[in-house]
């Protein structure tokens, strides 16, 4: 059993991140999860979930988010740190900056996004979509390490796998979005529904459509590789300094959320 998991997106799939690594195999009511590894970081048991699969075979709209989060719950995970690449909408953010997002806007279209399809119905509060306790730890450690980061940000999630049009980015900017990605939703929603703490470290890899001449996947992968060492240092420090006992809103997410008949 491991209480903490790291969900790795594009560019952070190196299993050498873990010591004493072993592959896990688990079945869920929602099918097979993405690639799962278990190991240790500085003596602490950690699950590494490679979101897009071992060979990046699952595009964002085909990731089995429900199976992934359910598997983590079955493995005893109480906290999740998500790492993902994002496009930059807010010009105050520079390529290579980390963004510790605190809100999201959902523009996905066809993904299963809840565990509660009925007959039990829960309306879960998302005033604070990301765990405030974990965010505080990440912000504190990023500041201590001298990392270039932004402690707030609005993440807009699109369906993918195509990149957005300049017109869409212009709209997202008017709505207040700072960065754009394809994976944070429904991942963070499903975690909250199972009372798992979830926080996201986003890496601005490039400017969004219309803010530079064109977009390529190569520049995303290249930036994530360049920031990989810094990310791993930050993750190690965060994992070492998370409090043992959770005192956040996430563990009580279902309290007063169920519709009683």
Short characterization:
The protein is an alpha/beta fold and 261 residues long. It has helices spanning 65-74, 132-145, 166-175, 184-193, 217-241, and strands spanning 4-8, 19-24, 35-41, 44-50, 79-88, 98-99, 103-107, 149-150, 154-158, 179-181, 197-207. It has a single domain, classed as Rossmann fold (3-Layer(aba) Sandwich), CATH 3.40.50.1580.
Keywords:
261 residues, 5 helices
Structural commentary:
It is a single chain. By secondary structure, this protein is an alpha/beta fold. The chain has a single domain (4-252), classed as Rossmann fold. It contains 5 helices and 11 strands. Strands 1, 2, 3, 4, 5, 6, 7, 8, 9, 10 and 11 form an 11-stranded mixed beta sheet that branches. β3 and β4 (44-50) form a beta hairpin. α1 (65-74) runs parallel beside α4 (184-193) and α2 crosses α5 (217-241). The longest helix is centred in the last third of the chain and has 25 residues, at 217-241.
Low-confidence stretches: none
Largest sheet: 11 strands, mixed
Structural class: alpha/beta
- The count of β-strands is 11
Task: Give a topology summary.
Layout: E1 4-8, E2 19-24, E3 35-41, E4 44-50, H1 65-74, E5 79-88, E6 98-99, E7 103-107, H2 132-145, E8 149-150, E9 154-158, H3 166-175, E10 179-181, H4 184-193, E11 197-207, H5 217-241
Parallel strand pairs: 1-4, 1-5, 5-11, 6-8, 7-9, 9-10
Antiparallel strand pairs: 2-3, 3-4, 5-10, 6-11
């Amino acid at each position: 059993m491991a209480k903490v998991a790291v969900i790795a997106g594009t560019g952070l799939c190196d299993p050498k991140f873990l010591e004493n690594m072993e592959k896990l195999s688990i079945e869920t009511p929602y099918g097979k999860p993405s690639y799962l590894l278990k190991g240790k970081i500085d003596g602490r048991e950690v699950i590494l979930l490679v979101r897009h699969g071992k060979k990046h075979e699952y595009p964002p709209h085909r990731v089995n988010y429900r199976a992934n989060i359910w598997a983590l719950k079955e493995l005893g995970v109480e906290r999740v740190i998500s790492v993902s690449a994002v496009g930059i909408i807010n010009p105050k953010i520079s390529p290579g900056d980390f963004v510790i997002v605190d809100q999201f806007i959902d523009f996905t279209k066809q993904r299963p996004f809840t565990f509660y399809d009925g007959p039990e119905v829960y309306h879960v509060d998302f005033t604070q979509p990301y765990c405030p306790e974990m965010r505080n730890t990440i912000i504190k450690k990023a500041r201590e390490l001298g990392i270039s980061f932004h402690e707030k940000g609005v993440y807009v999630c699109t369906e993918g796998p195509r990149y957005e049009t300049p017109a869409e980015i212009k709209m997202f900017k008017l709505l207040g979005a700072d960065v754009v990605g394809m994976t944070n939703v429904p991942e963070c929603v499903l975690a909250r529904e199972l009372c798992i703490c979830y926080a996201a470290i986003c890496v601005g890899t490039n400017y969004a459509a219309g803010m530079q001449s064109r977009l390529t996947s190569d520049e995303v992968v290249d930036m994530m590789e360049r920031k990989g060492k810094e990310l791993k240092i930050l993750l190690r420090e965060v994992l070492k300094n998370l409090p043992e006992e959770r005192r956040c809103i996430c563990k009580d997410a279902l309290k007063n959320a169920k519709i009683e008949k």
